Amino acid sequence: MGSSNTEVEALMGGEYAQGFVTQIESDTLPPGLDEAVIRTISSRKGEPAWMLEKRLTAYRYWLTMREPEWAAVRHPPIDFQAISYFSSPKKKPQLASLDEVDPELLATYEKLGIPIEEQKTLAGVAVDAVFDSVSVATTFRETLAEAGVIFCAMSEAVREYPDLVRQYMGSVVPHKDNFFAALNSAVFSDGTFVYIPKGVSCPMELSTYFRINEAKTGQFERTLIVAEAGSRVSYLEGCTAPMRDENQLHAAVVELVAMEDARIKYSTVQNWYPGDDQGRGGIYNFVTKRGECHGDRSHISWTQVETGSAVTWKYPSCILRGKDTVGEFYSVAVTKGHQQADTGTKMIHLGENSRSTIVSKGISAMHGSNAYRGLVRVAAKAENARNHSQCDSLLIGDRCAAHTFPYIEVKNPTAKVEHEATTSKVSEEQLFYCRQRGLSQEDAVSMIINGFCKQVFNELPMEFAVEAQKLLAVSLEGAVG
Amino acid sequence: MLSIKHLSASVDGKAILKGVDLEVRAGEVHAVMGPNGSGKSTLAHILAGRDGYTVTDGEVHYMGRDLLEMEIEERARQGLFLAMQYPMELPGVNNMIFMREAMNTRRKSQGKEAMDAVSFMKLVREKAKLVKLDERLLKRSVNAGFSGGEKKRNEILQMALLEPLLAILDETDSGLDIDALRSVADGVNRLRSPQRAMIVVTHYQRLLDYLEPDHVHVLAEGRIVRSGGMELARELEAKGYGWLLDEVAA
Ligand SMILES: Nc1ncnc2c1ncn2[C@@H]1O[C@H](COP(=O)(O)OP(=O)(O)OP(=O)(O)O)[C@@H](O)[C@H]1O
Ligand SMILES: [Mg+2]
């Protein structure tokens, strides 16, 4: 029944609460990309020569590549010369302590609910905040240092821990991997570096907060997490951006390396600006995330809640190289308005007895388009590999779409690969039923949606599970008249 | 309590109800019978406020208020309950949590405090026993994959929990086995009180034998064509609707 769909859609059309712009003086390179720009980025960051070389190699390779077209998303061609590749808040270099951070910036993070001031921090969560291209604050450094954990901005890591960075950066996602990975390798601005020494369980949740503020800038962060044998870490990233009419590009690369018996849990709550009702503006979120379960019995788990961005193109993946390794992917992707998402995962089974689990929940409303694209590959020598995939789609209204593209390549006969997929609808009947029992339309919708996402929310660290639920609820807020 | 005056309604331009009159006072049980497609569920849905129906004429008052002006959830919070002919499935929504939400919303509108999880669990188990609903169904998603009879029992369980003032049961007896029929009837009888009223839509005399309604109505071709007592139900059971429709047409 038409009228009711409109109501449901109105519910989904909540305002984007993080759409404000911070008035702050910034130092932004003019738009355009060539070798000189890359040299400038590198020198602004005081990088060693090898890093510049790496960037230039990636850039030259990128020039030979073409933007991929296979994803089930549509957008006007991106003019890579119209983007500024570096922007940083002006008053900043070399902060000795948080007291020196621009108060405007602190106010911004406060508005966003990011606990950047240590005393206000959620117990046990250390935060790194990346504003446009630069990391502005990292909290709890001392506590972490005592445990031997390194948690710092990537640009700092390049200077302070060059051996580690040199050894691992690009080892999981080489610059030749794909178009956006090559671009990122050439121009990456900042990001986070995490190193957990052998046998150490990181004493707190680590978290990075990304925000794009400046107009016409791209954000190209680079994150690298190395977990040595027997170590454990849980890491969370969150993202927002102001509302702007033009599209902005976010092309990040995240690499995870887990040694023997190490365990990495990586959670994302992505809420970049999705664009307006007409489909104007919004972030293009083209991200390469990959983890390598290098050592035997290592374990990498990706959890993502993707509610923002105009276009998302993202496949957090696991290379299960060691024996008895475990890879997991839990995803909720919401597309409403004119948002498009093509997301999923790749589980590459190389080691014996490697196991993987995929749980993907796609929610589409209004004109939203949501595609799950997943690859499960079992190599010839991966005896007894196991995969279970479950892909569920929930449709709200008649004009949205959901697609599932599972690719399965099995070269070992002992493999067990299972795939389940369902598509369901939030129907007028269901809402009528809930409301007949006294629930408001809002509560009914969020109950159905939370029920649908439960399996994924259960994987998030507790306080972020609550955040994620709220984030879904925010899109529903204030829409019932 | 409920006063329906000359209610006419259409779906997609097709007239379904053509002047329904019905008075329901507190304490009464009314049975509504009638051939398939005569508009019984339509009437029930309109009373509950479901979208998709256009009221073309008439009025409905509930507890002194204009019912047709009230939102679906507002009607429910004011004690109107509809046990549906085809209860909807809510995959992923835990049955117990759903019922607790419903219960607490109702309590809130009555100015009562929300019930904590433990007391609610106790209460729901107790009531589930009464309607002979397998406890395991409480842990599953609302109605998802329930058998036809299980869905009906689940409706009655919700009714028992919410203790509505006006309960409308749309063919809750269809598809129930004999034991379930009795427990549904018991559930309804237990709820009977001078403050409450019920409208029971059914095709079968068996349920009515348990309930002993005060009034029996026949809805045919969008109108209540005859009202009476239990003897009318018995006559219909014996003779079908043909004779009545002929009499009405004559
Ligand atoms: N959405 C709709 N679109 C078109 N016709 C409809 C719609 N809903 C109901 N009708 C029609 O309205 C008439 C009355 O339907 P209703 O469900 O109220 O009958 P009923 O008396 O409950 O029948 P039963 O005893 O079989 O349950 C039927 O002819 C039905 O086909
Ligand atoms: Mg019916």
Written overview of the protein:
- The complex is a heterodimer of chains A (481) and B (250).
- Chain A has one domain.
- Chain A is 23% helix and 35% strand.
- Chain A contains eleven helices and 23 strands.
- In chain A, strands 5, 6, 8, 10, 11, 13, 15, 16, 18, 20 and 22 form an eleven-stranded mixed beta sheet that branches. In chain A, strands 4-3-7-9-12-14-17-19-21-23 form a ten-stranded mixed beta sheet.
- Chain B has one domain (2-249): Rossmann fold.
- Chain B has ten helices and twelve strands.
- Chain B has a six-stranded mixed beta sheet, with helices on both faces. A four-stranded antiparallel beta sheet of chain B has the order 2-1-4-5, covered by helices on one side.
- In chain B, α7 (178-191) links the parallel β9 (166-170) and β10 (197-201).
- Chain B starts with a strand and ends with a helix.
- The relative contact order of chain B is 0.18.
- The model of chain B has no long low-confidence stretch (mean pLDDT 91).
- Classes of the chains: A alpha/beta (481), B alpha/beta (250).
- The interface between A and B is medium-sized, with 25 and 31 residues.
- The complex binds adenosine-5'-triphosphate and magnesium ion.
- Magnesium ion binds next to α1 of chain B.
Topology:
The complex is a heterodimer of chains A (481) and B (250).
Chain A: H1 2-12, E1 26-28, H2 35-44, H3 49-63, E2 87-89, H4 103-111, E3 125-131, E4 134-138, H5 141-146, E5 150-153, H6 154-160, H7 162-168, H8 179-187, E6 192-196, E7 205-211, E8 222-227, E9 232-240, E10 247-250, E11 253-258, E12 263-270, E13 282-293, E14 299-306, E15 311-314, E16 317-320, E17 326-335, E18 340-349, E19 355-365, E20 369-378, E21 386-396, E22 401-410, E23 416-426, H9 428-436, H10 441-457, H11 462-474
Parallel strand pairs in A: 3-7, 6-8, 7-9, 8-11, 9-12, 10-13, 11-13, 12-14, 13-15, 13-16, 14-17, 15-18, 16-18, 17-19, 18-20, 19-21, 20-22, 21-23
Antiparallel strand pairs in A: 1-2, 3-4, 5-6
Chain B: E1 2-11, E2 14-24, E3 29-33, H1 40-48, E4 54-62, E5 65-66, H2 72-77, E6 80-83, E7 90-94, H3 95-109, H4 117-130, H5 136-139, E8 141-142, H6 148-162, E9 166-170, H7 178-191, E10 197-201, H8 205-211, E11 215-220, E12 223-228, H9 230-239, H10 242-249
Helix pairs in contact in B: 4-6, 6-7
The complex binds adenosine-5'-triphosphate and magnesium ion.
Residues 40-41, 85, 170-171 of chain B line the site of magnesium ion.
